[in-house]
Amino acid sequence: MTTQEQTGARRRRFAGGGVLLIAALALPRETLADTPPAVRPTLNFYGVTGLIDMPTAQSQPDGQLSLTVSNFAGLTRTTLTFQISSRLSGSFRYTGTKDLNYAGFRDYYDRSFDARYRLLDEGRYLPDFTVGLQDFAGTGVSSAEYLVATKHLRPNLTVTAGLGWGRLGTYESFGSPFGDRPRIEEDTGGDLNTDLFFRGPAAPFAGVEWQPTDRLGLKVEYSSDAYTLETRQKVFDHKSPWNFGMEYQASEYWRVGAYYLYGSEIGINAQFSFNPKNRPGGGDFGVATYPVQPRPDRATNPDAWTEEWVLQPDGSEILRANTAALLNEAGLTLEAMAVSADRVQLWLRNTRYDNNAEAIGRAARILTRTMPPSVETFEIVPVERGIPAAKVTLRRTDVETLENAPNGAARLRSVADISAAHPTPPELARADELYPRFNWSLHPYLQQELFDPAEPYRADLSLRLSAGYEFAPGLALSGSLTKRLFGTLDEFERPNNSVLPHVRTETPRYVRDGDPGIETLTMAWYSHPARDLYGRVTAGYLERMFGGVSAELLWKPVNSRLGLGAEVNRTRQRDFDGMFGFQDYEITTGHLSAYYDFGNGYQAQVDAGRYLAGDWGSTLTLERVFANGWRVGGFATLTDVSAEEFGEGSFDKGIFMVIPMSWLTGKPSRAAFSNTVRPITRDGGARLAVNGRLFGLVNDYHRERLDTQWGKVWR
Question: CA end-to-end span of the chain, whole Å?
């Protein structure tokens, strides 16, 4: 076929698809106006907000989490996308392509990250407008950049047009407006591809999405991706730039679709999407606590307000016992208490509620039932590991008048004081019967290994027996023993090619040889040496691979967004059998840390220092913390280890989620599921895993965090 004939064929294909675009735009206005719009923007084959293979400019609802699995022509993409804010979203993707011979693999597997930001909001005349980076920190096989605009023509009809670079600029491109694009090297990936951004040929893409009903969706798009690498290796035959799809919203959470792509392939897409802000089962199912018990009127019953009760023998002890009993019914523990004629200070251990404001509110209502009428000031001090984290001061009068008042939670917060707790008030009487205390638990857990090209997913189901013995406030012995039940982690057979000390890459040996094994066995001491200062010393078998001594000091004012910490560890590598022996490798590590709360649940942490392999560098962690306890975040570590020395992935990075049990069940619980996904586990940037680091213990009781949870203070 001549060049002129090829051009004519392309024009005919464009015209054929264009008929569908025109038909969609020409649908009767009354038909479209009576059709409800889609609940939220839909997702494409890359797992981002889009049409079929192309992106759109719309955003998911703030906080939305989406898991998408798509397949066509032996190409499978699994993508996790998080709407970080109303404008910014991030995605992690794992792509497998059969029969794609690349970087020495017969079937190629690739990990990639995306980011996109909506610059403009749709208005009467302006469209949504978004800039996106695709595969910006990977091998570059899927790397692309795009500018895209989307506009509603009807409530259920949108049109999209955009420009793509990289692989989205490979079909019918019109030149390189911002310079040539460097050639992609076949390497281990992981580097930031900044030299590629918006470089090379650019090409247009467009599409239409119509929702004829609230469940059915129809899509047509003109793709700017020529799939050059895939067609060159005959993975599939790219015959046309036009793609067509039909999708069905099966439920609030599930959406499925079937498609005809590139004139030659059938594709499918499954989307699971939910929002951490919204609990699946609706409201809370926790048991209500005692209501506020108002005091008798002082004018008509002045004897009830006398302060002479403080002179009675054992009067404070009786009050403490009565308060402890009611708190225990509510799932709270009285650690210590000091009572005077007009004031009570209650040191409280919260063992049930993931919402700390809810625990404080329940304690305050119980105090209205147990304290004599003359006690006007309630000082509630939450305690973690024996150390007071903060002090919440409430006037009893406010508690009595605002329990059922309109907007009562906000009004109570406006008169509540959150301040630092004195380390050890001299008049405080501790509940000595609490110590010593023994606790234990037995539960299953899942250990995973992801993204090995030979076997992308391996996992073990194991049992963990945990036990703890608290000698005194802040002093505890604890440990855990694990036993593997079944799984595939022991089948990991890739040779260890790390040139660094093998501080993490010997994980398969620890799995095979250490069953059963002692996971941890430590003695820990927590202290509150001065205002705004917290301390920790932990010694023993600190984690599965290392033992030694770890010491930490944290400065974190209760009403400050900023926290600073320092940690030093002297550690030695443990034997593979998971028992009491050690290997020869030992090292001193440590970090200086800064924590900052930006408000609205956004937090950042920077750790700078020395890692387990002897490398020096820093880790940046960004996370979003929801009021209900959900946490979603990511981290990246850069050290003086080069990308070549680090190996596959180039540097350590990952994403993590913490899912509170209460979100799933609707019942109060401090239990949570947590999972960290690393594209690859290597030795560079590896930090010691120590239980009970200080910031996570105390910060949830400080002002910024309590403010986000205060809405449940009357729950």
Answer: 74
Residue found under tokens 């799809």: 245
Q: Which of 501, 546, 500, 541 is nearest to 524 (CA)?
A: 541
Q: Is the peptide bond before 436 cis (omega within 30 degrees of 0)?
A: yes
Q: What is the pLDDT of residues 236-271, one digit of tens each?
A: 999 999 999 999 999 999 999 999 999 999 999 999
The pair of structure tokens assigned to 352 is 């049930």
Contact 688, 661 (CB under 8 A): no
C-beta atoms surrounding 214 within 10 Å = 13
Among candidates 330, 522, 334, which has minimal Cα distance to 429? Answer: 334
Looking at residue 298, the DSSP 8-state letter turns out to be T
Dihedral of alpha carbons 188, 192, 197, 203, sign: positive
Q: What is the longest distance spanned by two Cα atoms in the chain?
A: 107
In a 3-state reduction of DSSP, which class is residue 368? helix
Tens digits of per-residue pLDDT, 158-182?
A: 999 999 999 999 999 998 999 999 8
Dig out the tokens for 562 from the structure. Answer: 């900023």
Among 687, 642, 651, 682, smallest CA distance to 502 is for 682
Residue partners of 414: CB distance under 8 A and separation at least 6? none
Beta bridge partners of 540: 522, 548
Give the containing element (helix H, strand E) for 408: helix 408-415
Extract the tokens encoding 278.
């919204």
Contact 240, 220 (CB under 8 A): no
Mean pLDDT by 10 residues, the chain (715 residues): 42 39 37 44 97 98 97 94 97 88 72 94 96 85 94 96 96 92 67 84 98 96 95 92 97 96 97 92 76 92 86 83 94 93 94 94 96 96 95 97 95 97 80 89 88 77 96 96 89 82 92 93 96 97 98 97 98 96 97 96 97 97 94 95 87 93 90 88 94 95 94 92
Nearest alpha carbon to residue 520 among 467, 569, 571, 475: 467
Residue for token pair 């509630």? 380
CA distance 113 to 111: 7
In whole numbers, what is the pLDDT of the chain averaged over residues?
A: 89
pTM: 0.89
- 484 three-state secondary structure: strand
Judge whether 485 and 444 are in contact, CB under 8 Å.
yes
> Considering only CA atoms, which of 307, 700, 225 is closest in space to residue 708?
700
The token pair at 254 is: 């599930």
Rounded to whole angstroms, how far apart are CA atoms 637 and 687?
A: 10
In 18-107, the DSSP E strands lie at 65-72, 75-82, 88-97
